[in-house]
Amino acid sequence: MIMSTQKEVERAKKSDPGASRHGNFMNYYQFHPAEERVRQLPGGVWRSSCSNRKYVGLDVGCNAGDLTLLLYDFLREQGHSEVFLLGIDLDPILVERAKERSAERSEIAFECLDIFSKNKDQVLGEFLKRLGRTSFDVAFCFSITMWIHLNHGDQGLREFFKEICKHCDMVVVEPQSWKCYRNASRRLRRSKGEDFPLLSSIKYREDVEDYIVDVLRNSCGFEEVVTTEDNNWRRKLLIYSKKNQV
To answer: Which residues touch 34 (CB under 8 Å, ≥6 apart)?
Structure first.
């Protein structure tokens, strides 16, 4: 009975990331393995609109860089001989970890950056300028929409996508369900932290995925490339591209 209880506790630890206000978990990849996300990505859709042979990607909310590094390998396997990635995260500790892990990978860079900060255009622009580009071929947004929604509300989520789509030709989005919102709120309150102030004012809840699709189509001028099947934690990927890029 004791051994069974211990196993249950260990399973709970692996499935419960703890409390966070922005999703910047230090142990994130223990409960959402980076390899599973790469397996979920389809082949054959990763085209570049630029003729300089460089394929350039942005990983928003890159955490400690585990997934960013695998995305680099995946894009190389898709036939791109020159791949360059920029990972951004608002947590400086996680970004430092990512930089240490990729110290010998000159094609991959990491920056501590909040996409809502005033210097976002400068940071993204400088990276692109070094590569002779004006936009990213793709922006990856894995499991970050909930945190943006909770901290910036419905309008903030819309503004996030308008900003990201301004800088890229394709976007990959992994939306979280409303159940995840409730869990994040519960964990925060359980840790004696203040609940998300904007939670009660959020209008788009069970239909948040529909809201994201509406923003991508009608506010950003993007259209669907493909929507994947669910992954192991029951989330799909929405892959959208500028209309003239499909």
So the answer is: 66, 67, 69, 70
pLDDT tens digits for 20-66? Answer: 999 999 888 888 899 999 999 999 999 988 877 899 999 999 999 99
pTM of the predicted model as reported, rounded to 2 decimal places: 0.91
The two structure tokens encoding residue 124: 């993204």
What is the C-alpha end-to-end distance of the chain, expressed in Å?
57
Which are the contacts of 223, defined by CB distance < 8 A and separation ≥ 6? 217, 240, 241, 243, 246
Closest CA to 64 of 31, 36, 102: 102
Residue 165 is encoded by which pair of tokens? 């789509």
Mean per-residue pLDDT over the chain, rounded: 92
1: how many CB neighbours lie within 10 A of its CB?
5
Phi, psi (rounded to 5 degrees) for 43? -95, 165
State CA 40 to chain mean position distance: 14
